[in-house]
Amino acid sequence: MSWLVFAGGNLIVLLTAYFLTRRRGLAPAEKFLAIFAVATGQIVFTMLLAGTVLRLTITTLLVLNLILLAAAILLGHLFPGPNRAPVTRPDVSWRHNFWARLLLFLALLETAWLIFLGYLFPPYAWDSLYYHLTAVATWLQSGRIVLSPYTLWANVYPMNTELIFAWNMLFSGSDLLVDLTQLPFALAGGLAVYALGRETGLQQANSAVAACLFFLTPIVLVQSKTCYVDVAFAAMFLAAFYFAYRYYHCPRRVYLLLAALASGLIFGMKASAAPYVATVFLLIIAGNWMARRATNHPFRQSLLPSLVILSGALLLWGSFWYLRNWLAYGNPLFPFTFKVLGYTLWSGQGSVADLVMVKNMPPELAGLPAWQQLLRSWQETSGPYTFDQRLGGFGPQWLYLELPALAVTFILALARGHRRLLLLLLPLVLLFWLQPSNWWTRYTIFIVAAGTLSLAYLEERLPGFWARPLRAATLALVIISLAGSLTHGYFTPQVIGRFLALPPEQRTFFQLTPWGDELAWVARVPPGSRIAFTETAFPYLLFGPRLENRVYRVIATSEEDMLRQLRENNSQYFLTTTTSAYYHWAQRNSQIFQPFFSYGDYVAFKVLK
After folding, report:
1. What spatial distance separates the first Cα and last Cα of the chain, rounded to whole Å?
2. How far apart are CA 505 and CA 571, in angstroms?
3. Beta bridge partners of 537
4. What is the DSSP string of 423-438?
5. For an engineered disulfide with 450, which of 58, 183, 187, 428 has Cβ 3.0 to 4.6 Å away?
6. Please, where are the H alpha helices in 445-492?
């Protein structure tokens, strides 16, 4: 039944997006990208509405989305689009471009491989288990979007992507497929790269080459099987950037609406989205300026509706998380301190650099100038690639081919006055330099699009005796990087064979356990258990794959307070550490606390009645 509900819920969303985008004069690639953006926006909107005003239940969400589907069909009949979609047929560039077809085949194989890994293995990534999925579990068990009592980081980040995680878990009934949530985003990012290539004049085949090279980037592949948000953010930004770029050259309202929607979504995905949204804003403003010159309409008259639409999208799809932070912590960017010209506008626990970046900087980069940090990171081109590696992640194709191609293409565009190409590359390069800690590839995935488009641009314009070895070198480096990202660092042939031999219900995290060994006992407790804990790095694992367990955080000031909380929650199991006062209090009440499991400093007790 859960599979039928899962398929039905997603079909309703896709049909709504289809009816809203049909007959809008969109090319096929644009239409698929528009459907993806609208469907994502619809899921986020209905999840926010259900989670704040109504209840986060399947019934509520189905009713809301059926209402939107009916409204989309009605709007299509009342206001049919006047434009026919352009008919796009395969051009001659496909006939003799074997490497484009080969890269498409590799992308298809990788997609199938990721689906296989996502089905076989449970969520495993560190931050997924720490706060991404912990927030989701809190919402689904509460039936509302509420603050999580388990960890601060499950509350303070913008969480539009986590709403998509929650949608998938709610409709599928478990976390079986939640690790594949970012895969459609990775494919959509590739589609945005293809559309950008076509808009800059690349042939279909070479646009497809650029798209495939983006998708086949190691950090994109390994992150596509995690409940992180970096691929989703980069892909949605590229979609927003494309629609804004298209609006600049063809200022039609449909491109403005789609750019605004995608911008609102990325604003609600990451707290660092402001410069990305500003980039889209500037392109929209430039598009209005160009339209004014063509029509002689007053600039303010054309600009005001655009700003209203963009601001409305940011408010509707992105502002909730910042407003919630402001109400809960007095700072929309909490826990980060926000300063303007040295004046503290909102106080927090420290800067982004202090709380996140410095702690995660590899020792090899400490003290180096920014350009040396970049070069040192990009020089790490050997696998195995992992989802959160600090050094490398773009693969050898970036360092040896895509980055040089970007530099050469940028210089050629400047020398030849290629405005379309400059308008594509310059904002992405400037945005990359504005990104703090841009040595960390998971935060700068979008720049790969500039590199792959540049490489495809050069390959299309080089004579055959230069293009052929370039293609061969690109293919060789891509295959090397694919070999390095095949196992994601954890899914070796031995592990895959062991999981295949297990019944589906036993393919849990505790059969993999790259970390979190202190929670292996959770697999032994009966479903529906009530578990209390004082600290753990992976609160999500306590819930179980179907969120069947009830989980409680104990923060007590005395032994009596601890016992009272355990009684009130009717806790059956209690996890703490031997270095805490809770452990000593539990030892003094041996008639209540029966040792159940221990690992390192962690001890789990069975709480007796």
Report:
1. 37
2. 25
3. none
4. HHHHHHHHHHHHSTTT
5. 428
6. 447-461, 464-485
Tokens of 382: 């050997």
Q: Are the C-beta atoms of residues 197 and 211 closer than 8 Å to each other?
A: yes
Q: Name the 3-class secondary structure at 344.
A: strand
Q: 232: how many CB neighbours lie within 10 A of its CB?
A: 29
Secondary structure class of 195 (helix, strand, coil): helix
pTM above 0.85, yes or no: yes
- How far are the Cα atoms of 515, 516, 519, 576, 605 from residue 599, in angstroms, in the given order? 12, 10, 8, 11, 12
Tens digits of residue pLDDT in 375-394: 999 988 777 898 888 888 99
CB of 385 closer than 8 Å to CB of 488: yes
User: 537 and 516 in contact (C-beta within 8 Å)?
Assistant: yes
φ, ψ of residue 576 in degrees (nearest 5) = -150, -170
**Cα dist from 14 to 24, 162, 170, 313, whole Å:** 16, 19, 17, 20
Q: What angle do helix axes 230-249 and 182-199 make, rounded to 10 degrees?
A: 30
Count, residues in the chain: 609
- The DSSP code sequence of 84-102 is PPPP----GGGTS-HHHHH
The b/e string for 401-417 (b: 16+ C-beta within 10 A; e otherwise) is bbbebbeebbeebeeee
DSSP code for 521: G
Backbone angles phi, psi at 351, to 5 degrees: -80, 165
Q: Which of 264, 288, 290 is nearest to 277 (CA)?
A: 264
Going by their DSSP bridges, the two strands 550-553 and 602-607 should be labelled as: unpaired
Q: Cα-atom radius of gyration of the chain, to the nearest Å?
A: 25
Name the nearest CA neighbour of 30 among 223, 310, 249, 276: 249
What's the CA dihedral at 156, 162, 163, 167 to 10 degrees?
Answer: -150
Q: Report cis status (omega within 30 of 0) of the bond before 384.
A: yes
Question: How many CB atoms lie under 10 A from the CB of residue 153?
Answer: 15
pLDDT in tens, 304-353: 888 899 999 999 999 999 999 999 999 999 888 888 777 888 887 887 77
**Can you read off the two tokens belonging to residue 69?**
């589907």
Q: How far apart are CA 360 and CA 388, in angstroms?
A: 10
Pairing of strands 530-533, 550-553: parallel
